[in-house]
UniProtKB/TrEMBL annotation:
Organism in which the protein naturally occurs: Tepidicella xavieri
Binding, Zn(2+): 103, 105, 129, 133
Membrane-spanning ranges: none
Molecular-function GO terms, alphabetical: ATP binding; glutamate-tRNA ligase activity; zinc ion binding
Official protein name in the record: Glutamyl-Q tRNA(Asp) synthetase
Amino acid sequence: MTPTSMGYRGRFAPSPTGPLHAGSLVAALASWLDARAHGGRWLVRLEDVDAPRCIPGADALILQQLAACGLHPDEPVVWQSDRAAAYAQALEGLIEAGWAYPCVCTRKDIDRAWAARGVTHARHAERVYPGTCRPEHGGLQGRPARAWRLHVGRVQAARHLPAPLPWIDRRLGPQRQAVEREVGDFVLRRADGLWAYQLAVVVDDAWQGITHVVRGEDLADNTARQIVLQQALGLPTPQYLHTPLVLGANGEKLSKQNGAAALDVSDPLRALNQAAQVLGLPAQATSPGQALATWVALWRQRWASASPSADRR
């Protein structure tokens, strides 16, 4: 059964580490428009598993910002902090299958392992895990576990997944990533006991029946590893569309980490127009509700039945 035949279900999944900013609204608006253009349902999930980074009250503020812009979820909001039992069950299944293993390595350990092979970790580059704690390499050898990782190679072999793994982005077109070589065995549960983003998002997308994921382009390189994890857990793979990013004055992605200003919703139409223009939609001089209706019609023409194309804005 294809995602479309199941009925469209999309979502916006911000982390409450601060209020929404201009870049966040682009992703929120795109996911809302895609759901409306397909006649589907739009959900909001607050990804608060990284509790130390979450700011008290940020979740309520995010929901207020969305509401001010006319973006209302069709079902009750979900907090990932309420979903620990589901993540534990998923991890237990992977352990029983022999596809997850405990790891003691710190980032310094990983860097030292690569340095011993003459490789230096580049800034901003993926820190590829060298497989130090894999069972076939001797495992923990009596040391206490710090984290749990997915054994990518075993999953790929068991599920007959090609390497590099290909997937199609509705905006960016054909994509591919050699997960084992370019990422390595990624973390499922962190050394501090917190659940990793990859496991939580895959489990929750399946639980909520998400058929279409629309999110920022900075998350595109997470997709292949999420597909591997979906295959390991026997879960469906949604369709993906990654939106253009809003850049800061320094040319880097606008984010809370580089001081992005909180989204000003005192003039919702202005905020929506700015987000719409990033998505290649014309600014509107009407009300937020009328602007959203106009953009839904335009989005439907562009995306609701379009085949993936790398030249689309």
